[in-house]
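Researcher: I've been going back and forth with a colleague about how Cytochrome d ubiquinol oxidase subunit II might be arranged in three dimensions. Neither of us has a model we trust, so I'd like an independent prediction. The organism is Niabella yanshanensis, in case that matters for your notes. Sequence below.
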Amino acid sequence: MIYVVMAYLWASVLLYVLMGGADFGAGVLEFLSTSKSKDSTRKVMYRAIGPIWEANHMWLIIAIVILFVGFPVIYTTMSVYLHIPLTIMLLGIIARGTAFTFRNYDAVKDKMQVVYSKTFMYSSIITPLFLGIIAGSAVSGRIDPGAANFLDAYIFSWLAPFPVAVGIFTVTICGFLAAIFIIGETRSEEDTKRFVTKSKHMSIAALAAAALVFIAARVEDIPLEHWLFGNPVSIICVILAIISLVWMWASLFTRQTKLIRVIAGAQVSLLLVAITYEHYPVLVNLKNTEGLSLLAQQGAEKTIRALGIALLAGSVLILPSLFYLLYSFSNRAEE
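Model: Here is an independent structure prediction for Cytochrome d ubiquinol oxidase subunit II. You can compare it with whatever you and your colleague have in mind.
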């Protein structure tokens, strides 16, 4: 049953990156839009994400619950040593959701709309930035359980070149996913062209951010290259990701909207497999000591069994409703 729980954890993280990432990316794209096209961009994005934006956080909640219940040592370590970026990320989620709601549903349209829009855009950048910082910190080996002072324990565990570079890369990935997703939701040729252009720009930005991650890894002596090219599975995933990038660019020219969504999702999935396979099942690398493994730090057997059963039963009840929600609003958008 432990492998069922681990599979749900990995799938939850992936789905949050894909669906939540596209959600956050909407704010990133709005921030990067020119003042002339901001209103049009905002309307298209609202039509795309408005009906289901809150459902995306379900995947983050599932991942947190799995860690809390099934892997308490890992949950405690991350929540203690990374409590500052975690708090900023959660505040970003709250600020973004509040701003989105008031901006779109407030009965009074006044100067506060400017405040709501700025809050929405900035928190859409801050949230994935710190999500990436947390991920980069967890794998970089910067968390030091033996730290003797506040800065080493709670600041330098995440405030460093590699985690920040991973955070920037995460922001660009979110913008890329949003642009790809929204192409299929546009209703005018002008909007379609604009988001195709944004998709190309964000893919280039993601490649540049990826190069920054490699440079930061070299500076901090993090074996990123070994993780990506040290085993056949990761190598195959990287090669497929590169091939799919070329395929996606070709599909952008032919406007195959459904296909490019699948390709973009596959790219992110392949990258996640490539980066995590080498140090699996270690989830958190620690400084000067062994990392925290999902197998070694799992909870009691009865707890894992109950958690696995709950996840399987919940899937039967929740997933059909979620797919129906997505299907319903997809059809509504096409009308």
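Researcher: What would you highlight for our discussion?
Model: I'd start with this: Residues 2-212+297-334 form one domain. After that, consider the following. The two ends are 44 Å apart (CA to CA).
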